[in-house]
Amino acid sequence: MPATMSPSDSAMLFPAAPPVSASSGLTVTGDIIALRLVDVAYEMDLKEAERLWLQRQSDERSRPARASLSTTSPKAVSFGNPPLTIDLGIRHLVVGLATHEVAVAVRLYDFGALVIEIRRPVTDMLWQDFVALHDGIFTVLDNEETATVWRDILSTLRKTLLPCWKKPTDGSLQEDYQIAFVRHFNEPISIDALDTKIDIAALLSGETRPLSQQARRDLLRQRFSYYEDDLVILTWDRAFIIDARGDSDILDVLEVANAQLLEMRFYDELLDAELPRMYNMVEAARKRFDMYAPRRFATLARRFHTLVAEVTELTERVDNALQVTEDVYLARIYGAALDLFRVKAVSAAVDRKLDIVRDTYSALYEEAAGSRGQMLEVAVILLIMIEVFLALLHVEH
Questions:
Q1: What are residue 31's DSSP bridge partners?
Q2: The predicted structure's pLDDT at residue 370
Q3: How far is CA 71 from CA 78, 116, 129, 134, 163, in A?
Q4: Nearest to 321 by CA among 261, 240, 376, 244
Q5: Which UniProt key words apply to this protein (predicted)?
Q6: What is the spatial distance between Cα 273 and Cα 25, in angstroms, rounded to a whole number?
Q7: What's the confidence (pLDDT) of residue 193?
Q8: Residue 346's pLDDT is what?
């Protein structure tokens, strides 16, 4: 009989919000990180992108670099094809009445995704101010009227890198994710006692009103910890990370999971648009039966076969963007992120639609072969009729 969780156990795992006085005087050193992921092309030539960017830039500090996982052994975790990182330096972001200096970087993935990272470092900032700034940045960057920084950066990149983008898109498909990254507090706090000091649920929800116990449980459900001083909590659009090592591989894992979601959404929408078009083309081809019917069926079949091959190749590249094998902790976080972002569900939908296209082009090949057979039969019958007619003419003469 499975064990049940008592109300007291639930309260221990998901305690009520701590009083405001509990976090007074507590300061944070870390980063507020905002990510915008944009699908810009079917695929990207990263070597050509590096060449184009170097040609544009004379400042060596902006020289692109290939990303690598910093704190985990290459044997445990590796990129299929490491993204290209471009440092865009410092920019200014207005949040409320204050102007903040933020570090901007871009990462390009070979499967057509582009990630813009905006990072606001904080040093010894009061927890309450950290939460307020986190929410303020989220509000500004989530509003298309105020978030001109996204458009400006994307426009700059498009002007320079467009030649290396194969089959460019309009960039309308996007995903946003925000991370509150804590390197350390000004006083030692065990992870077990953290919930009595700060209200993590409020940070992750962006709500100023007290949350219900049910809402807190839902927000804090995806919670991971390996050492006594580290913590990862994931939600659909935000994450809270404590890691004294600094920039950990967890950031890379979360970024790749979001990039995989973005690309799977792209292929899902692509197939959604292609299937009705496919049905219309097949119906139109079937309505016309003439000597060119086999060729039309074969042409359609080749087109659909090409679509399946192209999407299958690119989805496999997306699936293999990151390999996590021996680092169990990182693998758990990566798997949880894929489940939370519903990457596997969208991927399964893509596979189902690909199966429909496969079945269609197989049927078209069969119809093309059948139509050729029918045309041959008609030709044979006509030849026989001609021979009989000629024979009758010969007899009469």
A1: 121, 181
A2: 58
A3: 12, 22, 30, 26, 34
A4: 261
A5: Membrane, Transmembrane, Transmembrane helix
A6: 55
A7: 84
A8: 92
Structure tokens at 5: 């969780």
Cβ-count burial of 161 within 10 angstroms (0-12 exposed, 13-18 middle, 19+ buried)?
buried
pLDDT at 45: 94
Q: Can you tell me which residue has the tokens 């990462």?
A: 107
Enumerate residues 6+ apart whose C-beta is below 8 A from 386. none
Q: Find, among 262, 260, 267, 264, the residue nearest to 321 by Cα.
A: 260
Contact 357, 304 (CB under 8 A): yes
pLDDT at 11: 44
Q: CA-to-CA distance for 180 and 327, rounded, in angstroms?
A: 23
Please name the helix (run of DSSP H) or strand (run of DSSP E) that holds residue 110, with its range, or none: none
Q: Which two tokens stand for residue 267?
A: 């292929």
pLDDT value of position 8:
40
pLDDT at 60: 53
The confidence score (pLDDT) of residue 38 equals: 96
Cβ atoms of 160 and 86 closer than 8 Å: no
Asked if residue 22 lies in contact with residue 100, where contact means CB atoms within 8 angstroms, the answer is no
The DSSP letter of residue 245 is T
3-state SS class at 103: strand
* pLDDT at res. 173: 92
* pLDDT at res. 5: 43
Tokens of 306: 């090409």
Residues in the chain: 397
The pLDDT, as a whole number, for residue 81 is: 84
Cα 286 from Cα 289, distance rounded (Å): 7
Pairwise CA distance, residues 158 & 270, whole Å: 22
pLDDT at residue 174, rounded to an integer: 94
- Other residues' Cβ atoms within 10 Å of the Cβ of residue 18: 16
Which residues does the chain have with pLDDT short of 50? 1-12, 20
CB-count exposure of residue 47 (10 Å: 0-12, 13-18, 19+): exposed
